[in-house]
Model the fold of this input.
Amino acid sequence: MKLIKEKEVLYSATKPTGLLTLGNYLGAIKNWIPLQDKYSCYFCIANLHAHTVDMDADLVKERTLKQLAMFLACGLDPKKSVIYVQSQVRQHAELCWLLNCNTMMGEASRMTQFKDKSAKGINVTTALFTYPVLMAADILLYNTNIVPVGEDQVQHVELTRDIATRFNHRFGETFVIPKAVVPKVGARIKGLIDPTQKMGKTDDDPNNIIFLEDSDEAITRKIRRAVTDSFGKIKFDEKNQPGVSNLLTIISACENVPIEKVVASLSGQNYGALKSRATQAVISVVRPIRERYEYYMNNLDRLYYIAEHGAKKAAIVAEETLKSAKFAMGLL
Ligand code: TYM
Done:
């Protein structure tokens, strides 16, 4: 008799604070697509996380739907994976409280996102402080084995492991300990205007970011304006040539060609050639996504249906885990 091995669980999410970017795609979503056949996958739009910063309610709603449409346009398939919106599965917020009781102030204070925003003197909520604990709840609810993310999220997955290990020690084996997986290329796409910082969703300067919604013209314009340097040599050297290196990374990730090969193929050419190659590479990735995205945005009823259906499936597993955690903690 042939034994059927259960698939391992993969979990990942994006938060709808802004429109999805090329960084989100190359660092995360693109890598999820082929894994849908190998793992039992959960993909979430973390809209509760969006309210950890000052967000307008209408904007959160609009961006949640847009991200869902983008997930589908990028190739996430509700027939293969559970695709859902965080606020529609109430177990996330409840487990978050239980995990808060097992998280130390010191470890939460060390999280970069909280440290950076509080250092800037921005009004910081307690939710921003416990943001990584909610993220731990997301991951742990589904008995997750692997969490494919960009580099900036690795710290949060490490914290999740620490919280889960502590919980299991104190209250008995309850949670599976997850592991972060980071792509070889594209784990940290930088801004076009400031290539020393990651391409974020909410930068002040839209020229710094390529959105997955951007038209071909917008992509061409933004890459034409991308900051390079005065060396005039196409070389992958992130320290001294961050702008050129970022464009090489983008080409490599979009074309699925190793960086060294991209550099070799551009040998002896100028930055104009580098930029036009980057423009072509990005347009060939973004255009088909944008076209499918427009289809989903014109079919909102379908989006609501997919979200509801996904939430129902997610809640079954989430409830099981939540029950175990409450039981372990002696909660009636
Ligand atoms: P978010 O929405 O900031 O980013 C979503 C995913 O995109 C990756 N990413 C990048 N990768 C490469 N280069 C970039 N410039 C870039 N910008 C973003 C991120 O690493 C991430 O993988 N806290 C998470 C959302 C979340 C989550 C979770 C993730 C909530 N719960 C549970 C994993 C598991 C966040 O803010 O991602």
Observations:
- The longest strand covers residues 9-14.
